[in-house]
Amino acid sequence: MYASHLILSADRAALPRFDFPSETLTLESLFANQPTDKFATGEAVFWEGDAASQVFQVAEGCLRLCSILPDGRRAIIGFVFAGEMLGLSCHGTYRYTAEVVAPARLRRLSRARLRAMEEGTEQLQSLLMARVFEEMTAAQQHIIVLGQLGAEERVAHFLISAARRTGADQKKPVTIELPMPRLDIADYLGLTIETVCRVLSKFKRDGLVAPRGRHALVLRQLSNLQDRAGEIDNDAPSERPVAVRSPAVWPA
Amino acid sequence: MYASHLILSADRAALPRFDFPSETLTLESLFANQPTDKFATGEAVFWEGDAASQVFQVAEGCLRLCSILPDGRRAIIGFVFAGEMLGLSCHGTYRYTAEVVAPARLRRLSRARLRAMEEGTEQLQSLLMARVFEEMTAAQQHIIVLGQLGAEERVAHFLISAARRTGADQKKPVTIELPMPRLDIADYLGLTIETVCRVLSKFKRDGLVAPRGRHALVLRQLSNLQDRAGEIDNDAPSERPVAVRSPAVWPA
DNA sequence: CGGAAAATTGACTTACATCAAACTCAGTGG
DNA sequence: CCACTGAGTTTGATGTAAGTCAATTTTCCG
């Protein structure tokens, strides 16, 4: 763990100053020229406890982030889809294992290099911070889902957020890919595989979704699904519950 | 939301460069000369959705971070105790309401000022990053607790992490303060108040804990409690489950 | 003290887990 | 091309942990 820090500072000194085209700073440009690794289904990219020396971008495929309890239970903390980053918000060591769900290509960037790049670039820092905060928001949302929602609500919420990730958040039917097996969904939602199945079957019977093979679904009525998701994270936030207080204003 | 960004950059230009005594950079020193606000039990420090323009340090007391679902269910995302920071890891707006559980004094620091201070100070940046990552780790832990553990395990885990926060993580009996009402614990653990009570009563019967009034407990057998907590987050991490693979090593 | 809010305990219900049995379907080899 | 196979999924019957409803009991505070 501390070894990684040493390596990190040593590397940093040796690395050349990095200059961006100051306009186009995106994730893509960050990883554009980085080495690409291929992974088959089931392979691990890194393990919980490994020194977190690398940051990744998923160019293609899908990963699951999981943690095994001593007695064998498995928690899935999240999924990472194409276009998203991996391994950014950890300190010395990764706190989960990243395993491949669908054959993946990953671009890789050493943390040392990333920090060197950050050095001058205000813009990059805030880009990365924004990612970290997004992850934080997602985690908090997940906490609410697991702590407060029932099985149907959890599954509905999962489907909706999958739909949202596709970008197109329309009123029209959306087709979502679910590359992970049912057991992964169950472990992600804190349910059993049977319960996930039963809920999906119910949604099918009720005409909310239609199966497109094992690994894809058409969501027929987003709004209706949203009703079953405890209505959390609707785009239009609901009114303040009680005693509408004006936001606290602090003296400058 | 965007207004806050504007204010932020405007302020920044006007703010003086900040110089630290380069040795002693701690949270304490950061907030040392900041204005202090007092809050009574039940008061809100800020609301979910407010522009996140301030960062706080709890000098004294205890807060709960909560989010109300449209149908009235309440999720408690976390508690903040004396010495800890509040409101750091959010972007434009706070994503939860912060309410006072035990009469509190808070030191306050504007985000604009904080960013200005960061500017030069490498050290401060990494201090803050470390805090953010700690929060992330805690959130992921919470996800595992809510998704995988049963009622007894959740309560046991809650007590143990409370004990850990006191600092002294000895083999000896530890006394912990639980300033929040039972309902808060329930909403934090995704249980009902009755279940929390029953589990606590069981722990009392079994001699694991002893009540010290409503708001304090003596933990008699940390190790025994740990057994009931699904053994997650023990100090000594268990062995790799299967197929011990050496950590991935990436070419420099 | 007295009264109200918080906590605890008990009886009963229910949502989800568990156990067990089919069913589906993507490969594989005859 | 089609039967065979086995992993993944779905469905059904039953069990149980935790939720709900309803009293008490405790504790705190005026």
Q: In words, what does this structure look like?
A:
- Two copies of one chain form a homodimer.
- With 252 residues, chain A is of the alpha+beta class.
- Chain A has two domains: 27-147, Jelly Rolls (Sandwich), CATH 2.60.120; 150-228, Winged helix-like DNA-binding domain superfamily/Winged helix DNA-binding domain (Arc Repressor Mutant, subunit A).
- Chain A is 39% helix and 23% strand.
- In chain A, α1 (2-14) crosses α3 (111-120) and α3 (111-120) crosses α4 (122-148).
- Chain A is globular.
- At the A-B interface, β2, β3, β4, α4 and α6 of A face β2, β3, β4, α4 and α6 of B.
Q: Low-confidence parts of chain A, pLDDT < 50 over ≥5 residues?
A: 1-14, 236-243
How many helices of chain A in DSSP terms?
8
Q: Measured on Cα atoms, how large is the radius of gyration of chain A? A: 20 Å
Most residues in contact, chain pair and counts:
A-B, 60 and 60 residues
Q: Which CATH architecture of the largest domain in chain A is right?
A: Sandwich
The level 1 CATH classification of the largest domain in chain A is Mainly Beta
**Strand residue content of chain A:** 15-25%
Tell the overall outline of chain A.
globular
Oligomer: homodimer
CATH topology of the largest domain in chain A: Jelly Rolls
Give the CATH H-level superfamily of the largest domain in chain A: Jelly Rolls
Give the tally of structural domains of chain A.
2
Q: Could you spell the SSE succession of chain A in H and E letters?
A: HHEEEEEEHHHEHHEEH
Percent of residues in helices of chain A comes to 25-40%
- Counting DSSP E segments of at least 2 residues, the number of strands of chain A comes to 9
Termini of chain A, distance in Å?
A: 41 Å
Briefly note the structural class of the backbone of chain A. alpha+beta
